[in-house]
Specification:
heterotrimer, A mainly alpha, B mainly alpha, C mainly alpha, A: mainly alpha, B: 8 helices, about 0% strand
Chain lengths: ~200, ~200, ~325
């Protein structure tokens, strides 16, 4: 039981996919313009991660080594298509906001990375918790980045305006601002890591 | 099919909506391989080849397979399969023709499969050049050209970044910012500079 | 252990110290600054002061925090603050130059390791950041010489903005453009003062002609060729005298640290800046392209240096 908890927790801080493993940055940067978008993407990615981790852990012994990557991709793509269609049906606004980054979850390094590095070598239970932890860690990172970008760049949080008379720096809503925020955050977390060591 | 559209695609894909600096596609390989110019250029050429060919192949699949049989929801799966197969094919060809080149690419050749830029441009082509499930006039040529231009944009960003990073090797960068953080901040400034092309109109 | 010291350009080997060069450039900018304050009033002075003080404070704070030597007296941070101030409209909120200077020094210079190691011109990094963040404030200009006429300054468009919007109905007299009787940023409007400073630097040997002349010539030729009424109908003199071209070409595109080492490289740099500036002015969405053009060429400088390396004696 303790081991499962460990698998779950490592995805949140010690091996956070965004800030420590530096994976899955394409959607992170594109989507983190507002917290709501960030949460939407985080949930979609977590769903795909859970699904693919479980299936791949189940069938890992039947996949030939040479074509394992395309096999993983088919599994992942299936879950992404499910997520895509569900989103289109239940929240077209969110689907429009996330744009091409929903189908791009297929090539999200976090999902494929966990499949290759973990689910293909571990039990279903472990893979489930690993996927859950990574997904939540990814979502938390998204929320942190989106919160910064939304507040400083648009003056709102969860689409509500906050402080009166605050002049937001629009650049943070743009690609340039996204790259800046992630660069500074990565540097900040590096600093924390070094202080700890 | 008009010339202005081709020019717009070129300016958009290479400068205004640069695949890396503006659309964030291909960031993983961008940050990983842009440390030195030679591998960066080699990777860029490979990516450009894959984006161009896969743009064309996926166009055919979408136009003659998915639309007629009403299977457009399978676009993600079919596109990525096409790309994975094609990259595998390119891998085999390079291994046969030039083993040293194959070895110098190392693990990054198969990683082109998951380069967001490749799938990204295929999806983009469909979004831009198909209107309500019908192909726009000349959409094949636009799609293929956009594939080339996205590759060019990738190459441009890689070339600039690798030059900068090679030079920064000699500089006194604060330790916490070395490598990844600084690369992103540099990309941020480059993205700011490229904003100069916004609102381009011929 | 190897005692080789490897460092990045510029490798200055004369007895001029970096400090002296910085202070000379600052001196040469005083006429343009004084002219800007004269033309736009006391607000302009405040903008410059805020920009300069913030730049110095940011550098001192960061250097103190990271336990490095405090070098704010070598003039480099002051110059950055001054150039940023020159690139701002006269009537901006007080916090704008402060934020801009902090960003320019912290992100444009210190994260690269400090003086001599930055890739991009810090003042331009600051300006472009401000332009993207608060476009409304950065593109609101006031009427020149308003205070002297005894009236409050009204908002006024720059010549290039009028051109971009197609509202340039009557030709602006070249003399107005030359003397600075036009809307624009504090340090960019008075061409005669800028040229005086540039000539001073030329004579003392602190400025080489390659980049500025190539830059200005290229922009002039390009805008002449691709004129509004067909080929070879462009008003090149208007373009050379408008916007931030003179300020940029002589004082920002010539920064030793962020431009190529070799003569050939410098000419390529000037040419690239010229083309990009002209292209943005003619067909881009923004009325002025100098800042973007220089930053883009800054990014290309390492590659330019790489491919225009001078031949090592004895090798092919």
């Amino acid at each position: 039981m303790k081991k499962l908890a460990q698998e779950f927790l490592k995805g949140i801080i010690r091996e956070n996919p965004t800030f420590v493993l530096v994976l899955g940055l394409c959607p992170t940067l594109a989507v983190s313009v507002s917290v709501i978008n960030g949460i939407g993407m985080g949930i979609a990615a977590t769903f795909v991660l859970l699904g693919s981790n479980i299936i791949i852990a189940l069938i890992k012994n039947y996949i030939p080594q040479r074509i394992r990557i395309p096999c993983y991709i088919v599994v992942i793509a299936t879950f992404v298509t499910i997520a895509e269609m569900t989103m289109k049906a239940f929240s077209p606004a969110l689907d429009r906001a996330l744009g091409i980054y929903v189908p791009l979850i297929v090539v999200n390094c976090v999902v494929l990375g966990r499949a290759e590095a973990y689910a293909s070598k571990n039990s279903v239970a472990n893979s489930f918790f690993d996927g859950l932890g990574m997904g939540i860690g990814f979502t938390l990172a998204l929320i942190l980045i989106s919160a910064l970008r939304e507040f400083l760049g648009a003056g709102t949080l969860l689409w509500h305006p906050l402080i009166k008379g605050f002049e937001p720096a629009f650049v943070l809503g743009m690609p340039s601002g996204a790259l800046l925020v992630i660069g500074l955050l990565l540097g900040f977390f590096n600093l924390l890591k070094k202080r700890k060591a | 099919m008009n010339l202005a559209q081709f020019l717009t695609i070129f300016i958009s894909a290479v400068f205004i909506y640069n695949v890396i600096l503006s659309r964030f596609l291909g960031l993983c390989s961008f940050v990983a391989i842009s440390k030195e110019t030679k591998p960066a250029l080699a990777m860029s050429m490979a990516v450009m080849f894959v984006t161009t060919m896969s743009s064309m192949i996926t166009w055919f699949i979408y136009r003659f397979l998915l639309i007629p049989f009403d299977l457009t929801y399978l676009r993600t799966i079919s596109f990525i399969l096409v790309i994975a197969t094609f990259v595998q094919f390119v891998e085999m060809v390079i291994r046969k023709i030039s083993p040293p080149l194959y070895r110098s690419f190392g693990i990054y050749l198969p990683l082109i499969t998951v380069n967001c830029a490749v799938l990204g441009v295929a999806v983009l082509n469909v979004d831009m050049f198909f209107v309500s499930s019908k192909a726009v006039a000349g959409s094949f040529y636009y799609s293929a050209f956009q594939g080339i231009c996205v590759g060019l944009g990738y190459t441009l960003a890689m070339l600039l970044m690798s030059g900068i990073r090679e030079r920064l090797d000699f500089c006194d960068v604060p330790k916490a910012l070395k490598d990844f953080p600084l690369s992103f901040i540099i990309a941020s400034i480059m993205s700011l500079a490229f904003m100069g092309f916004n609102g381009f109109r011929f | 252990m190897n005692k080789l010291i490897v460092s990045v350009s510029p490798h200055l080997h004369n007895k001029e110290s970096i400090s002296k060069i910085m202070w000379m450039v600052i001196l040469s900018l005083i006429p343009a600054g004084a002219a800007g304050i004269y033309i736009f009033g006391i607000d302009a002075l405040w903008v410059i002061i805020l920009a300069v003080v913030s730049a110095l404070a940011t550098e001192a704070l960061i250097q103190g925090f990271t336990k490095k030597k405090i070098t704010i007296f070598n003039g480099s941070a002051l110059l950055t603050g001054l150039l940023l101030g020159f690139n701002l409209p006269p009537k901006v909120p007080f916090w704008l130059p402060i934020v801009g200077s902090c960003f320019a020094i912290a992100i444009g210079k210190m994260i690269f390791g400090g003086l001599g190691q930055n890739i991009f011109n810090p003042a331009l990094v600051g300006r472009v950041f401000l332009l993207a963040s608060w476009p409304k404030y950065m593109t609101t200009f006031i009427q020149p010489m308003a205070a002297w006429g005894g009236y409050d300054a009204i908002t006024y468009a720059t010549p290039l903005a009028l051109l971009k919007e197609g509202k340039l109905t009557e030709k602006i007299p070249y003399l107005d453009l030359f003397l600075g009787n036009r809307g624009g940023c504090i340090g960019e409007v008075c061409i005669v003062a800028l040229l005086a400073g540039a000539i001073f630097l030329f004579i003392r040997g602190y400025l080489s002609w390659h980049i500025p002349i190539t830059y200005i010539l290229t922009t002039g030729i390009f805008t002449y060729v691709f004129g509004p009424k067909g080929l070879f109908t462009g008003d090149w003199l208007f373009h050379i005298l408008s916007g931030g071209l003179i300020l940029g070409a002589f004082f920002m595109a010539t920064d030793y640290v962020t431009t190529p080492l070799t003569r050939k490289g410098q000419i390529i740099f000037g040419f690239g800046c010229g083309v990009l500036t002209a292209v943005i002015r003619l067909w881009g969405g923004y009325p002025e392209g100098v800042s973007y053009a220089i930053l883009m060429m800054n990014a290309a400088t390492p590659i330019i240096d790489r491919y225009t390396k001078t031949r090592i004696y004895g090798t092919r």
